[in-house]
Amino acid sequence: MRFLSRRLVMPNDLNYANSLFGGRALEWIDEEAAIYAICQLETTCLVTKHISEISFQSPAMQGDIVEFGLKTKSVGRSSITVTCVVRNKATKKTICLADSIVFVALDPVTRLPMPHGKNLESLEKQTLEEIRSLNMEKPDISNL
């Protein structure tokens, strides 16, 4: 699982118990998972088809930094299924888990499902290549 982005829990993200509002967490999960799926499938014409049950395990409080772990679970002809874990950056405690989020690629003109041409093996290979290139690209900080 790759933890790809972070958010700061602000006062307007809180519920009556002064912890992260579940609806806000769902909004963030849908957005982060969509960005991940767009990058994986290399298309911007995707829609959320299904989000499985969300399991809330621990609260996030104002000032906490939460991070989003994302992984491709499966790939269909026109769909991709993603798993998303939201955890506290400092404590590593899981805040919530969305085990299956399904996105469908659409034809931009007809808005009907369209094959994306990817499979799980090619996406895993692409991810490994990205990780390798990031490890090889070390910025020159000697002039700083």
From TrEMBL:
Gene3D superfamilies: Hotdog Thioesterase (3.10.129.10). Keywords: Hydrolase. It holds the Pfam family 4HBT. Residues 1-109 form the HotDog ACOT-type domain. The keyword Hydrolase applies. PANTHER family: ACYL COENZYME A THIOESTER HYDROLASE, HOTDOG ACOT-TYPE DOMAIN-CONTAINING PROTEIN. Belongs to the acyl coenzyme A hydrolase family. This is Hotdog domain-containing protein. The lineage of its organism: Bacteria, Pseudomonadati, Pseudomonadota, Gammaproteobacteria, Alteromonadales.
